[in-house]
Specification:
heterodimer, A: 755 residues, alpha+beta, Aldehyde Oxidoreductase, domain 4, Aldehyde Oxidoreductase, domain 3, 3 domains, five-stranded mixed β-sheet, B: 288 residues, Uridine Diphospho-n-acetylenolpyruvylglucosamine Reductase, domain 3, five-stranded antiparallel β-sheet, four-stranded antiparallel β-sheet, 14 strands, binds flavin-adenine dinucleotide
Amino acid sequence: MSGNANGYKWIGTRTIRPDGVDKVTGRAAFGADFALPGMLVGKILRSPHAHARILSIDSSKAEALPGVKAIVTSADFPEIPPSEAIKGSSPPNYRHLSQNLMAREKVLYDGHAVAAVAATSAAVASEALSLISVEYEVLPHVTDVLEAMKPDAPVLHDDLFTGGVEPKPDKPSNVAKRVEFAIGDIDAGFADADVVVERDYSTEGIHQGYIETHAVVANMGEDGQATIWCSSQGHFMVRQYTAGLLNMNIGDIKVTPAEIGGGFGGKTTVYLEPVALLLSRKSGHAIKMVMTRDEVFRATGPTSGSAMTIKIGAKKDGKITAAEADLKFFAGAFPGAPVHLGCMCGFTPYDIENVKAVGFDVVTNRPKAISYRAPGAPIAAFAIESAIDELAGKLNIEPLALREMNAAREGTRTAYGPTLGVVGFEETLEAAKTHPHFSEPLGPDQGRGIASGYWFNVGGESSASVSVNEDGSVTVTSGAPDIGGSRASLCIMAAEVFGIDIGEVRAVIGDTNATAFNRHTGGSRVTFALGMVVVNAAEDCIVQLRTAAAKIWDIDVEAVVWEEGEARPAGDNAGKFEPLSLGDLAAKTPMTGGPISSEKSSNVQGPGPAFGTHICDVEVDRETGHVKILRYTAIQDAGRAIHPGYVEGQMQGGVAQGIGWALNEEYIYGDDGRLQNPGFLDYRIPVASDLPMIDTVIVEVPNPTHPYGVRGVGEIPIIPPMAAVANAIEDAVGMRLTDLPMSPPKVLEALENGG
Amino acid sequence: MSALQYKAPTSVDEAAALLAGASGEARVLAGGTDLLVQLRAAMIAPELIVDVKHIPELTSVSVEDGVYSIGAAAASAELHENADLFAMWPGVIEAMDLVGSTQIQGRASLGGNLCNASPAADSVPAMIAASAVCVIAGPNGTREVPVEDVATGPGQTSLAKGEFVVTIRLPKKAPRTGDAYLRFIPRTEMDIAVVGVGVCLTLDEGGVCTAARVSLGAVAARALLVKDAADALIGTKCDDAAMANLDAAAQAACSPINDKRGTIEFRTKVAGVLARRATAIALERARS
Ligand SMILES: Cc1cc2nc3c(=O)[nH]c(=O)nc-3n(C[C@H](O)[C@H](O)[C@H](O)COP(=O)(O)OP(=O)(O)OC[C@H]3O[C@@H](n4cnc5c(N)ncnc54)[C@H](O)[C@@H]3O)c2cc1C
């Protein structure tokens, strides 16, 4: 058997991407590629106002237009009372979800859905939208987080009272909740410090920027059984949310996943599916809806922007004594900013005795925020890792060395509760220090920045089956969409357990009827959690295979071992038999008890937390404020890289997105509360020529709870880049930039004002 | 919704007649990289589209006595591959080469860039600096107009109904003349100029600047020909003092807007910076 340096046959090898050929040849079917006979086109009418009361909606003219088959407004959706807002396992707030899907009394942001039509063609549907007249009473709006927190700010929801404060407020406000995580004695910690840094930071709302816009085909059968085809990060999520919003039984909906053209957390909720299904019910036809890019920007998932204050104190020798964060995140139109996650992750790279992190979840007249890779953590890390860099400067200690002195390790208590198990933060710092990049000389106006990041990673409900086919090939069926290479990693793990060639294993993503429940793909959970389930199921199959061999040889099952893809007698005492391969045994199943397969479900625990450390070099054009990324190295503890190529891809992708977040990406609102840049021309994600080749270093400190040591790898890479870039700019020009994005006008202004 | 008519005439006269005869809005189609985007976004709803790419004069490049006649609809990629033209007018060709990506380059034209009349169009300041002239055909024959007089404001041109640009003429280049164009964008490509500066200058044998033209894009409602900026260079050796005067004159000529692409202060300052930098390149080219 061919061997790897790590002792495995397949784990850690760069096998060919199972979905690659179809994707590069354009054959892969994404959300918008599906069609049914007789299907209609659905389109949504959206609010042009940031905040307005809906006085009336008159759709009579649109209904009279030939080719229009159905129109729905919020009146067609069940109203979900506060008492039923929370239902089911790990639920969304269904009341808010429903109000976001289709505005009820008020529209809360530019782009908020108001009505939807189904018509025989896109042209007719567009014309119908223009014939619906909506009477609005425009209200004052607020898109800025600090403005929204002011006592005289326009209030979005008159039933929203700040949670997490005592006594409960008697007036509604835009502050949905306050959270606090603390350990030690923060005041004593600062009293103990020789040096203290304190500064305000801010970040703008930014979009995940997935290439594929949201798309669905939905069909409501005459018998009330519904079928949905769509791309999402969780077809079980789509099924559960749609059922909850339309008061249907979950079992009456089947959702088939399409390939997904990027999600990054943005496809972990529903926007179109329940609307399409309702239009289908009303029209008696299947409905197809595909969002335009403009709709994606105006109405779907940005992540929060923020206003933050960070204070850190340390002894002269570099020991951090106290750290405090005040994080205010805007959630958009409905509560749910990931501010608690920012509070949890921000200081975790460091072993600090006295920590206090307070967060506020604030609603504003913007689209409702949804997850974006490591939700909340990159925002907090921008501020905290900038503050660490500033502290290092004040202490006159090299920033990487300051991190080493204070690094969290096994046994470090986190501010949010758990004590860290086996983690690899120090290993990433060591790898950074010894990387040639770290000591490469810099030229004039060039600077180098270091930043680290932490993400706890996620496990969760996972179901999969493994079946040995009649010819001995193996099919792995799971129910979590493959957004980052999970088919490859599941195939590799199954091939490893069976000891067979990787080409003999296929992984498929089944629909909601093919497996039991799977939590959506997110939080970097699938290779870890589903991987464990698949390994368990494959091991179960091996027991069945040994049993079958024992039956054929008429010996005890204990006397049969599974080695290198075949059943062998355990030793001379077991008897002398020719080994039986997987193919041999598969062909004999009619005589040995039937097909060999195993289906497993589990709520997987013990995801390995992970850390990353990045090095970034920039060059600043002092006359234009333009920042060029010269060199970038991302170092990360992956636990064990099942497929290193995919891990590197995750790292490079996260860095590219983080550099966009750092330099140019932002939601720009006009004074009228309308989004000014709902397209990729003026919402500036990096283009290829903006980035250098991003170097990656995978550090492997195996996660002890996973059979192969996997830690999630998809979130960490987007956490350090914003601070790494800011710290590099500071190193280049001596100017600390505190507000994202660090776009040329801002950099130039800072340079002219001397910071 | 009335049906959109598409015509592809093969002669200048035929095209002029079609455009003049249209009862509603008629549009010339060159590469379509602006027009088709605007059509799809429902920003325009013409009744007639006249594709001029089948008219030989509009897609060919010729040179006579050092004067280049460039078909208004010739694809940028072809201009870029024309080594003699590139060597003669690197500023103009580089400016046009900045437009879009490889795919866009296969279609985008100088005429389309000019007649779309975006204040940020990249080739326009370069053409103005190079003293380019448009040959315009219409129902009443042809006329010649300097490039700076074509666009009158965002999306607006001085072309009359039925008129269109046939060729763009670049004059015979005087000895020791160099041109250059630079733009500022926040990224490295696929972006709209926040500021663009075209410079063309001529030196005497002693290295003194005897003629200069400086044009600014994206800092006003249309590309500007800035005489004060040129005057800052003429009669000098383009030394530091002249460069400082150029910078100040370029800034003084700006009347930009504050928008999502840049602030007034930023655009104004960067116009001065790019004027200096483009001049330095033009100077280098004039000397070699
Ligand atoms: C992805 C992308 C990136 C782009 N990047 C840039 C950029 O970096 N810089 C930049 O300046 N532009 C850019 N553009 C805009 C566009 O590509 C250029 O303006 C291009 O030069 C237009 O040329 P065209 O031949 O495609 O014009 P068309 O789209 O065919 O025409 C543009 C307009 O001019 C009119 N017109 C065309 N030819 C004539 C003529 N001969 N006489 C009279 N009127 C005429 C048309 O009726 C239309 O109104 C970009 C466009 C896209 C889609």
